[in-house]
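ok, trying the design again with the full structure, not the truncated one.
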């Protein structure tokens, strides 16, 4: 295809978290881009569709049967395919696509549609999954709804809305909780969907690039189970934890939550054996794929002078050769896994066993 790939963004979040507000803002802001929006009807959200259509010149295609979760692949595939075809014929003019999922949808199958279908993969580039979280109701939703936890686990970027309705300590505890579920995703507090477009588009969350955006301190506390008491002040910035290696997090109302969506990291200064690692990851994905939401690594492989980058969504894994290790650069491997009740010990021991 001569055309450049059309970037696609998945927007997810529970009802009331402000997705529609964010979407309206993105559509009406003067950025000179034409955006096609795909959304699925879900109960009262149809009212929002009326507003969106009348306010802007965007073309909105609604997925007919409401629930994205079960039929998404075929429905979404057909819609994306039709959009791309109409664009090629010059009937529609748009530069990017935003898919707004229902508050109850698991973003996994939506994301997979971009990789599993050749026709879609030739037309679109999945840019990122954005998740909106409502600060007032988030803890309750995360406690009671696995979909809400999945949306966190899948995210490349998390926007926390309604922070003005709760106190600072609650917001901080929520950010902390989210960071344990997904240390890859950047978090940002937003008011009324006021988000700069640079935080919404072209985030390249699915690119195979050499940055593994996780807070380095996250790697140092991995060996500990966060269950011993260690108090420290709350004067740290929101970007990362400030507990040193081996210190536990002891934030208020943090321990009440034992979320099934968790993340853990593996780090080693020894090279991997390529064949062992490939066999091990292949086996793990076969067994645990459905529970693996996002995983990524920048690896030192024996026999290669280049970094190897891999990442995956559920059962689909891709890898690529990155740039050469720079002269004098300390070689090491870093991996992060985000999933539902993954057997951390088995995975960490298995990875250890793949080292040369």
């Amino acid at each position: 295809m001569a055309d450049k790939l059309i970037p696609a963004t998945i927007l997810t979040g529970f009802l009331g978290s402000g997705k529609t507000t964010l979407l309206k803002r993105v559509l009406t802001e003067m950025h000179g881009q034409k955006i096609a929006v795909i959304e699925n009807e879900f109960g009262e959200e149809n009212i929002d569709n009326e507003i969106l259509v009348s306010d802007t010149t965007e073309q909105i295609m609604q997925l007919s049967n409401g629930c994205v979760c079960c039929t998404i692949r075929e429905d979404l595939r057909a819609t994306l395919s039709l959009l791309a075809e109409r664009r090629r014929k010059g009937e529609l003019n748009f530069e990017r696509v935003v898919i707004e999922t229902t508050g109850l949808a698991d973003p996994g199958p939506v994301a997979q549609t971009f990789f599993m279908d050749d026709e879609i993969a030739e037309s679109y580039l999945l840019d990122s999954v954005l998740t909106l979280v409502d600060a007032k109701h988030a803890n309750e939703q995360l406690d009671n709804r696995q979909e809400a936890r999945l949306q966190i686990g899948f995210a490349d970027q998390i926007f926390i809305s309604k922070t003005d309705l709760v106190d600072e300590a609650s917001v901080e505890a929520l950010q902390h909780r989210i960071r344990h579920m997904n240390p890859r995703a950047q978090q940002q507090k937003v008011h009324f969907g006021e988000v700069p477009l640079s935080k919404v588009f072209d985030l390249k969350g699915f690119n195979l690039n050499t940055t593994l955006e996780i807070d380095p301190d996250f790697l140092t506390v991995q060996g500990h189970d966060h269950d011993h008491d260690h108090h420290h002040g709350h004067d740290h910035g929101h970007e990362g934890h400030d507990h040193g290696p081996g210190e536990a997090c002891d934030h208020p109302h943090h321990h009440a939550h034992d979320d099934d969506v968790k993340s853990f990291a593996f780090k080693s200064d020894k090279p991997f054996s390529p064949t062992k690692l490939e066999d091990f990851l292949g086996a793990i994905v076969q067994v645990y794929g459905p529970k693996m939401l996002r995983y990524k690594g920048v690896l030192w492989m024996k026999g290669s002078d280049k970094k190897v980058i891999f990442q995956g969504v559920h059962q689909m894994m891709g890898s690529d050769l990155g740039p050469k290790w720079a002269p004098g650069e300390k070689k090491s491997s870093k991996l992060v896994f985000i999933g539902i009740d993954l057997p951390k010990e088995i995975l960490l021991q298995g990875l250890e066993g793949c080292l040369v």
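Keeping the full-length input from now on. The mean pLDDT is 78.
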